């Protein structure tokens, strides 16, 4: 079975001070590529799991989001970084199993790609990210303000990478 790191997008991979509603709005943090490359080199598959309720709210379309994710993957691949997949929940008001804090996106990826959730991590900047990771059976890393349910707390994705890799080697 494969181990994985599940990453929230906004606030973890990219700056989200301003809304990211089109590809040109995406601004990756300067440490993102280095951190994900560390996961790649350590044998983790990396998946992005992101709530994108702006689709249901009408702020942007599925096509806009596809463009944003294509830009993210392309920019990272230019630095020899691999994102193994991206899952998103387009819902905001609709009841579903995919919107975090529910673990649906993580469980879907785990089933499709034979991921060992007990050997995997969920990294997010919001409590709902941590709750989804815990429900899925992952260890969790909270970026930013502490959350008592999280296994670990760090300031950014590079710190998360260093912490996770220090626990698996």
Automatic annotation (TrEMBL):
Its main location: cytoplasm. Mg(2+) binds at residues 8, 10, 125. It is found in: Cytoplasm. Its cofactor is Zn(2+); Mg(2+). The keyword Transcription regulation does not apply. One of its GO terms (cellular component) is cytoplasm. Signal peptide: none annotated. Its EC number is 3.1.3.-. The record marks 50, 100 as: Stabilizes the phosphoryl group. GO terms for molecular function: metal ion binding; phosphatase activity. The keyword Repeat does not apply. Transmembrane segments: none annotated. The active site is at 8 (nucleophile), 10 (proton donor). Gene3D superfamilies: HAD superfamily/HAD-like. GO terms for biological process: carbohydrate metabolic process. Keywords: Carbohydrate metabolism, Cytoplasm, Hydrolase, Magnesium, Metal-binding, Zinc. The record marks 99 as: Contributes to substrate recognition. Zn(2+) binds at residues 89, 91, 96, 98. Pfam families: Hydrolase_like (PF13242). Belongs to the gmhB family. This is D,D-heptose 1,7-bisphosphate phosphatase.
